[in-house]
Structures are given as structure tokens and as C-alpha cells.
Design a protein that fits this description.
By secondary structure, this protein is α/β, with parallel strands linked by helices. 30% of the residues lie in helices and 17% in strands. It contains 10 helices and 12 strands. The radius of gyration is 21 Å and the shape is elongated.
């Protein structure tokens, strides 16, 4: 009997249901793939779906309530807190993520922020617009210390690249352990001490009751005036008002933010026009090869579905 997989499509040229199906369907003739643009559960194929794939924020109460046969959700994101908050997520439905595929693009975006902030690249662009020829000495990343708050797969990918730039890498984790390319590991209880070491403090921790608002005025106050904060994790892990105040008052040198407590960021939000803060619009996890990056993980899990070995799914998120 064929398995049924429903893909929640998105208005994103790099996240096309049809494109993804074209990549995996030839290897799984035992699976019927359907694509829907309806997120409220009213579309065809929802009730019979064995699995539903999609971005975490595209899942709704209506979708899960209508999916009576649902056994497995494959999120095409690493963070799944949006799905975990849905009351219609039944305990028996297995939830998996794409943990491990975002390392390259997240690391490169972090480097974009580190280099742009430390070299004041907005000033370079402004000079270009004004046709101003200004040469000045600029700092290097070599010899600097990057503190990474949250040590998972993305942090490991970032740490490897930081070592290539001759940086010292310090990790802050709720479960400190030895990880390749980290020079030192510190416990979450040592967050203030770790922040004091940072030339760049990179936030990669997932959002949870324990991490919500954890990067606050105390943590920012522990940082050096020459240090930069970079948040590519979840907006609500950081206190945005505290960041604005710390940058405005020059208690830290600046901040690079890709995530925000409200998305899209409202046009009247003070983050837009605070000098020293660099914003990118949730670019961290995106890449032009995102579908191809996701295929190895999803194919492993699809094989488990076909062979009725759901207990062997990878990247399972407990709930």
C-alpha cells in the first residue's frame, strides 16, 4: 500500500514543493507525493497523509487537526518551537527537523556580520555612494575570540570556519563537552564570564523557556566596549531594547541581527535606524541549494516511512 506525503508549498523560489518532489520521487515509487498551498487543513489529501513536510511556521492548528492519519512531520527548519506550541500536535506524531543542513549558510551569514561590523562596511558603501576616497586601517578577525552561545551542529560548522581565520573559539552550552574546533567550553551558568571574553558574541541557542530573554542587559554589560553581538538564532533569545541601549550608549561596539521578536520587523521599530546595528531579514538558513541540501536527511527518513521503521527516523524532536 502506498504511503502518502503532503508537502506544504511556499511562495519561495528556493522552497518549491514541485521541485522537491522532482528530486526525491524517482527514488520512492511507493510514495504518493501531493503539494498543497492551503495551510488550514482544507486542501485535498490532508486527512489521508501519513507525513506532512514543510517549513515549521507553515503548520497550523487546522492542518494538524485535519490530518487524521498523520504519523510523522518533517520540518524543513532546525527550529520547531512553532510546531511544538500547536495544541493539535498529537503525542504519537513523530516530529523531525533538518538539523545539520544549515551549517554553511548560517556560518557564512555570521561571517558577513562579523566582517561588516568590524570593518564598518556600511561606511565603505556610504563612501562609494558619495564618491569619497577614504583609506583607513581596519581590524582583522585573526587573533580575536568568538564566543558561541549554543553548541549544536551549526555552531560546530561555524567553529571550524572560525579556526580557519585563526580565531579563538569558546562555546557556552547547557551540557559542556569536548567538541572539535572549540578551544574552550563553558557552562551556561558561566554566561557572564564567557561574554566578558568575547570580541564577537554569537547567539545560536534555540528558543526555550530557559533561553527566552537570556541575552539581557546583564550579559551585554559583561561584554567589552569593543565587542559585537550577533544573533542568528531566535529573536526572543535576546532583549532587543537592551541591545539598542547598549549600542546607543557605546557599551558594546555594535550588533548584527538576523532574527527578531516580531517578524517581519515593523517599519517603525527603532532597530532600523540605530547606528551600529546591522540588520538582515531572516537570511540565515536560506540558500539557493536548500532543497538539494535537505535531500539526504529526508531520503533517510522517507526510507524509514516506506519500510515502516518510524522508530529509526533521524533528527527526532521529543515532545
Amino acid at each position: 500500500m502506498k504511503k502518502s506525503v503532503l508537502f506544504i508549498d511556499a511562495p519561495d523560489e528556493n522552497f518549491s514543493g514541485a521541485r522537491f518532489v522532482s528530486l526525491v520521487a524517482p527514488s520512492f515509487p511507493q510514495v504518493e507525493f501531493l503539494v498543497t498551498t492551503r495551510r488550514n487543513g482544507s486542501g485535498p489529501g490532508v486527512a489521508a497523509a501519513d507525513a506532512i513536510f514543510g517549513y515549521a511556521h507553515h503548520f497550523t492548528e487546522g492542518m494538524l487537526a485535519a490530518a487524521k492519519s498523520l504519523k510523522w512531520i518533517q520540518s524543513f527548519t532546525t527550529g520547531v518551537d512553532v510546531i511544538l506550541r500547536l495544541k493539535s500536535l498529537r503525542p504519537e506524531v513523530i516530529l523531525t527537523s533538518l538539523r545539520g543542513v544549515h551549517g554553511p549558510q548560517m556560518s557564512e551569514l555570521t561571517f558577513l556580520h562579523m566582517l561588516s561590523l568590524s570593518r564598518d562596511y556600511p561606511r565603505v558603501l556610504d563612501n562609494q555612494r558619495k564618491r569619497v576616497w577614504e583609506r583607513r586601517a581596519i581590524p582583522t578577525l585573526s587573533g580575536k575570540t568568538v564566543v558561541i552561545f549554543g553548541v549544536g551542529a551549526i555552531a560546530a560548522a561555524l567553529a571550524r570556519r572560525c579556526k580557519a581565520f585563526d580565531m579563538t573559539v569558546v562555546g557556552v552550552s547547557s551540557s559542556p563537552r569536548q567538541v572539535p574546533d572549540f578551544d574552550r567550553m563553558m557552562a551556561r551558568s558561566e554566561l557572564l564570564q564567557a561574554a566578558a571574553l568575547a570580541d564577537f558574541f554569537v547567539v545560536l541557542a534555540p528558543l526555550s523557556p530557559q533561553t527566552q530573554g537570556i541575552i539581557d542587559a546583564r550579559v551585554l554589560g559583561a561584554m567589552k566596549p569593543s565587542a559585537y553581538l550577533i544573533n542568528v538564532a531566535r529573536g526572543r533569545v535576546c532583549d532587543e531594547d537592551a541591545i539598542i541601549a547598549a549600542v546607543r550608549d557605546k557599551r558594546i561596539a555594535g550588533a548584527g541581527l538576523d532574527v527578531f521578536s516580531t517578524t517581519p520587523l515593523p517599519a517603525d521599530h527603532p532597530l532600523w535606524n540605530t547606528p551600529g546595528i546591522l540588520l538582515t531579514p531572516n537570511l540565515g538558513g536560506l540558500s539557493t541549494t536548500y532543497m538539494e541540501q535537505s535531500v539526504p536527511i529526508v531520503e533517510k527518513n522517507l526510507k524509514c516511512l516506506v519500510e515502516e521503521r518510524l522508530g529509526d527516523l533521524i533528527n527526532v524532536i521529543p515532545h
